[in-house]
Automatic annotation (TrEMBL):
InterPro entries per record: ACOT8-like_C (IPR049450), Acyl-CoA_hotdog (IPR042171), HotDog_dom_sf (IPR029069), TesB_ACOT8-like_N (IPR049449)
Taxonomic lineage: Bacteria, Pseudomonadati, Pseudomonadota, Betaproteobacteria, Neisseriales
Protein name (record): Acyl-CoA thioesterase
Residue span, Acyl-CoA thioesterase-like N-terminal HotDog domain: 22-103
Domain Acyl-CoA thioesterase-like C-terminal stretches: 133-259
Pfam families: 4HBT_3, 4HBT_3C
Gene3D superfamilies: Acyl-CoA thioesterase, double hotdog domain
Length: 261
């Protein structure tokens, strides 16, 4: 399998960057959405040196990211402590992903509050592997999944709720924003817990907020909890939280997913 670090190799071209995504990182015939997001963030980091930490990111998956990929970056606005950047990723059929990225340095503040305690679950070493084979997209074989609670995909559950331990299979993977994004989108959309058989799904938009300056060391096992608040009319709205194994919050995300059931 192609290592994640190899896929993040970008070639500088006249109008931005070019990327090649091998078949083992595809979801059907298109690039896996989490990888498209990771490529956008990686390109911004290379284009603009000295950026503050990535605080928040919004992605619109407008079309298929297939064939040779081209990435264009631009600074939208730069202030004293923050930089807003726009990134467009193009496939052979046109615009595939549009990203809005907010990079912002930490500032002194009199306020401090956090309500992001992880759920109590067994450790990954005693949880059963899941999504290790069968009819899963090619890219999922780059990740390990252990079920820590909730329900499994395609289990016919009445409640769309996951709790997984997840990690990159590459060893080691640095805890960069790009690697965190690739990991955060690896689990199937939570609405698939309600499915009785595999059926197409497609993420339309994805918003990710990072929980502080946490990009240090390697990216080991992380705990993911995801819940769909509303599944109706062919769309699902889900919220996801991810923690490191020591309980440190990594990110929060929300997603709009088209479900074809």
């Amino acid at each position: 399998m192609t290592p994640f670090s190899s896929v993040m190799t970008l070639d500088a071209v006249a109008d931005g960057f070019a990327a090649h995504v091998p078949g083992d990182w595809l979801q059907g015939r298109t690039t896996y959405g989490g990888l498209s997001a990771a490529l956008c963030v990686e390109a911004a980091g290379r284009a603009f040196g000295g950026l503050p930490p990535l605080r928040s990111a919004q992605f619109a998956f407008a079309g298929p990211a297939s064939g040779g990929l081209r990435i264009e970056t631009r600074v939208l606005r730069q202030g004293k402590s923050s930089v807003f950047a726009g990134v467009d990723l193009f496939g052979e059929e046109g615009l595939a992903t549009r990203a809005l990225l907010c990079f912002a340095a930490e500032r002194e503040s009199a306020l401090a509050y956090e309500n992001l305690a992880p759920p109590a679950v067994p450790g990954p070493e005693v949880c059963s592997p899941i999504l290790a084979g069968g009819p899963v997209p090619a890219f999922m074989r780059h990740f390990d999944f252990r079920q820590a609670g909730g329900h499994a995909p395609v289990s016919g559950s009445a409640e769309p709720h996951y709790m997984f331990w997840i990690r990159h299979r590459d060893d080691p993977v640095a805890a960069t924003p790009a690697a965190c994004l690739a990991l955060a989108d690896a689990a199937p959309p939570t609405a698939m817990a309600m499915f009785n058989a595999f059926a197409p799904v497609s993420t339309m938009t994805w918003t990710v907020d990072f929980a502080g300056e946490l990009f240090a060391g390697g990216l080991e096992w992380c705990l993911l909890e995801s819940r769909a608040e509303r599944v109706r009319g062919g769309y699902s709205r889900q919220s996801t939280r991810i923690w490191r194994a020591d309980g440190t919050p990594l990110l929060l995300a929300s997603q709009c997913v088209a479900v074809f059931v």
